[in-house]
Specification:
916 residues; alpha/beta; six-stranded mixed beta sheet; five-stranded mixed beta sheet; 35 helices
Length: 916
């Protein structure tokens, strides 16, 4: 009440002079805006409430809408109570929209309030705001208010900041610049902020363009005699910060002093802003190896932070800047202390650097997942450097323990919390990948240092758990509840992108402000907005929880499943070192040795095997030396190998490797593959069964690829080049031996096999008939997409009637099918080929069946010959009838039969068993 007496004359003035007089609406708006800008939130709120109260029931006035608008701003937006803000803005718009539209200021108010609603939705990350901003611009166009149109386009640009696409940001920021230039009242300051917006658009995409627009923004601003010190500080500090980020210290030297002087002059030397600029100097002098100057500004900055109670991200950055300086100068212990402080900057009592009891901060909420991983990785790197310098057992153990605690955090906290999120979590793969080398290094180093308490078993426990977690997480890629909508949405996104490329080409050659060009701009804007909305819809689709295999078994349980004649061979490598774990029933061994040209040798070997090259033996021998020779001492008395490959090793059939002119590995070993030792179980024997189902679909021009499927699949360039698709993209080549293949299975197992062939082998029948079957055999065409894994799948007979019977089983759709099978045989081309991930390669389609709970999958690594595949499969099923023959052993015996019959490796080595 104490404000009411003071404000009473002002209230009476407004309510009597302005509220009922249409000619003074604009003046009322300006005076109210001045009052809000020059008074506290509490004073403004009391004043506006009094004005609203004075209107009483007579609310059909524009001035009342103005009061509600400012009520939304003061009581809602400034207090960050966005529900109140939206409610008041909507009330204001409802009044303004019902008043006569001939009044210019009424139209202005309608557009203004719509823009405010759009901005509030933007703050709350709700894309509904886009429609309000567009509606606002339509009205602003009617009254030629270019300044407000420019502002709305700037807000629209910010909607795209988290889409990893700079094109729409640049487009809307350039539109903002265009309308700013069209505004006759525009200032150089307005232009400067447009250039800054374009700089933000290019950030992370084009360093030169980003820096160019930062500098252009600053130089445009200082041409404005009315520019405020705050604006100049804002742009000079921004230009300096970006220049430092891309190591353009020459540019940073120009702007950092300007920002520092302005900060001290207008905000004081003890302001938080001054501390921020101090740490720009820390980085700047650090780049010049000027430790004294860096330390001076660092201590000054920290002193200010401590006075102001600042913590979290600014302090983290500050400690990390100093850490890099000390590391560059070889002061690793000092660097370690700073890295440790960066992690515990908000802890009440910072532990000593060597105290790793609390490796994860008590309050890590201010860390993003990726930043926390990088912070811990910084410590790993320093432990490594210190050990190499001092050969200290203590630091070796600290490095190892840090790894373990990091993996515990990733797998037990992050992984459990993120498993149901959409798509593969790249930061999960990338962050953990950084720790693998150090974990392997510390384990191998410990073998040479008997004083440590590091053992290979514990290390392998985490490495196998990690591989299992990656499979489980990646198996959720695009597992949408409405898979058909998701795929069609992706097609529409690609279509809109292509359309925009054409429209942008036209726009760039029409520099006029013609109606035609404005129409083009509207079309581009509309397409970008549709793109954003589609992505938002796809992002928010519910992810299906797949029946993921469990990976809770400990290492002892894994070893218990290994028989005396078996060994697990688990590979890892980086640019310079090769690692391999060999796990048997009685011991765990780890090998470390230098590696050279491994991926090049893999590529050469695969090229030779696929072309039946005369250089195959020499190429195979080179890989044998690198991959098999180091392992032989540990597997000499074994006859079964479970290979767990890594990265590009997933592409090669190990059983085809040979040394000199000796028989290939398959002559001595039964070889199978898996994603992780976590999934190892005792070998399964088929025995007699009446639970086999075999599919062999037929294809023809009449029942080829329907239009929907064509539009989905042919967006993938490699699909269009498949040799079984005709040039007109209408039909699929028949597999003449596929029908014989399934008939042979039936002849082997008699009435124990159900055959679904020809026109009956539809996707719908596959979905309905595979339940309660022990073996599911599919003799058809398959496709594994490298660039778009979600487009991978299997072809069935097409009946063109619905999304779940369109003739193509997408990999993602496997999660929708009830499967009880112990074995799925994908007798299809490239069914095992797939995209390589950061940590491990992927076996393409088998990954999806495996994630569904199928323990064994036979798949192909390359295009296979139709007739020879039939012969291989006939031999495989024949051997399955033999007493106590496992799936892997039956496949080995079938391959040996093929070798005896003169088959080349390209004809028999492509099919591999992924499983037990």
């Amino acid at each position: 009440m104490k404000y009411l007496f003071f404000l009473l004359p002002f209230i009476l003035l407004y309510t009597n002079s302005y509220a009922k007089n249409n000619s003074t609406h604009e003046a009322f708006f300006d005076e109210l805006a001045d009052f809000v800008n020059n008074n506290s939130v509490e004073e403004s709120e009391n004043f506006i409430d009094s004005l609203i109260f004075d209107f009483g029931v007579d609310t059909a006035h524009l001035d009342y809408a103005i009061c509600l608008c400012f009520k939304g701003y003061v009581s809602g937006y400034l207090k960050e109570d966005f529900k109140i803000a939206l409610a008041e803005y909507h009330r204001a718009y409802n009044i303004a929209s019902k008043l006569p539209g001939t009044d210019t200021f009424n139209l202005y108010m309608q557009a203004y309030v719509l823009a405010r609603i759009g901005s509030i939705y933007h703050v709350t990350e709700d894309i509904k705001g886009i429609d309000y901003l567009l509606q606002s611009n339509k009205i602003f166009h009617k009254i030629n208010n270019n300044a407000k149109i420019a502002g709305n386009f700037r807000t629209l640009a910010t909607y795209f900041y988290n889409t990893n696409s700079s094109d729409p940001i640049v487009f809307f920021q350039e539109l903002s610049l265009k309308y700013t230039l069209l505004d006759t009242n525009s200032t150089k300051t307005n232009l400067a902020y447009c250039y800054r917006g374009i700089a933000h658009a290019f950030d992370g995409v084009n360093n030169d363009s980003t820096l160019f627009y930062w500098e252009k923004a600053y130089h445009t601003l200082i041409e404005d005699s009315t520019a405020t010190a705050s604006d100049i500080l804002n742009l000079s500090a921004g230009a300096a910060e970006y220049a430092l980020r891309i190591n353009r210290y020459d540019i940073a030297k120009k702007y950092t002093p300007i920002a520092y002087d302005l900060t001290n002059k207008y905000y004081g030397e003890n302001s938080v802003i001054s501390a921020h600029i101090c740490f720009q100097y820390v980085q700047l002098f650090g780049a010049e190896n000027n430790i004294d100057s860096s330390n001076y500004y660092a201590h000054k900055g920290f002193e200010i932070y401590n006075k102001q109670g600042e913590k979290y991200i600014w302090k983290i950055n500050a400690f990390n800047h100093l850490k890099e300086i000390e590391k560059a100068n070889g002061n690793y212990q000092k660097a370690l202390a700073l890295a440790h402080k960066a992690m515990f900057v908000n802890a009440p009592n910072i532990p000593e650097p060597n105290n790793t009891a609390e490796i994860i901060p008590l309050d890590s909420s201010y860390y993003s997942y990726e930043k926390l991983g990088n912070a811990i990785y910084n410590k790993l790197e320093l432990y490594h450097l210190i050990y190499n310098k001092e050969k200290s057992t203590k630091n070796l153990e600290l490095s190892y323990n840090t790894n373990i605690k990091l993996l515990d955090y990733f797998l037990n906290v992050h992984y459990k919390n993120s498993i149901s999120t959409q798509g593969s979590n790249n930061s999960f793969s990338e962050s953990v990948n950084k720790t693998i080398d150090y974990l392997l290094w510390s384990t191998c180093e410990a073998k040479k240092n008997k004083e440590t308490h590091i053992n290979s078993k514990t290390s392998y426990h985490y490495l196998s758990l990690l591989k299992a977690a990656l499979l489980t997480e990646e198996s959720n890629i695009a597992q949408y509840t409405n898979n058909s909508f998701a795929l069609q949405g992706k097609i529409q996104i690609d279509s809109l992108r292509n359309e925009n490329k054409k429209l942008l080409f036209h726009k760039n050659y029409d520099k006029t402000d013609s109606l035609d060009n404005r129409t083009t701009e509207e079309a581009i804007a509309d397409n970008y907005i549709q793109l954003l909305k589609l992505k938002h819809q796809l992002k928010n689709l519910e992810i299906k929880k797949t029946k993921n295999p469990e990976f809770t078994a400990n290492i002892d349980a894994i070893i218990a499943n290994i028989t005396d004649n078996e060994a697990i061979v688990d590979y890892y490598y980086n640019d310079s070192l090769f690692y391999c774990y060999i796990v048997t029933s009685d011991q765990i061994n780890i090998i470390e040795q230098p590696v050279k040209n491994l991926e090049k040798n893999i590529e050469q070997y695969m090229r030779c095997i696929k072309t039946a090259s005369s250089e195959l033996i020499a190429s195979s021998q080179e890989l044998y030396k690198q991959l098999i020779d180091p392992v032989l001492p540990f597997i000499s008395n074994k006859n079964k190998l479970l290979i767990i490959p890594y990265k590009t090793l997933c592409n090669i059939p190990f059983e085809a490797l040979c040394n000199k002119k000796d028989p290939p590995l398959i002559a001595s070993y039964t070889v199978s593959y898996n994603f992780s030792a976590r999934y190892v179980k005792s070998s399964e024997f088929i025995g007699k069964t009446d639970q086999i189902i075999a599919f062999a679909p037929s294809f023809s021009k009449k029942t080829g690829i329907n239009s929907v499927m064509r539009s989905m699949l042919f967006q993938d360039e490699s699909f269009a080049n498949l040799n079984f698709i005709d040039k007109q993209r209408n039909s699929i080549a028949n597999l003449p031996y596929a029908n014989e293949e399934v008939k042979l299975i039936k002849s082997i197992f008699k009435n124990q096999t159900q055959i679904i062939a020809g026109a009956k082998a539809t996707e719908l029948n596959f979905r309905h008939q595979v339940q309660n079957k022990q073996i599911v055999h599919i003799a058809s065409h398959g496709y594994s997409s490298i660039s778009n894994p979600e487009l991978s799948g299997l072809f069935f007979h097409n009946v063109n009637d619905s999304s779940n019977n369109d003739g193509y089983l997408f990999a993602n759709e496997i999660s929708e099918i009830h499967l009880d099978a112990e074995l799925v045989v994908l007798s299809a081309c490239q069914s095992g080929k797939g995209k390589l991930e950061n940590i491990e390669g992927t076996f393409g389609l088998p990954r999806y069946f495996f994630a569904k709970g199928v323990p064994n999958v036979i798949a192909s690594l390359w295009n296979v010959h139709d007739e020879k595949t039939k012969d291989l499969m006939e031999a495989f099923y024949t051997h399955l009838l033999e007493d106590k023959v496992s799936y892997a052993e039956a496949l080995r015996l079938a391959k040996l039969d093929c070798i005896k019959n003169g088959f080349l490796p390209i004809d028999w080595a492509g099919f591999v068993l992924i499983g037990n």
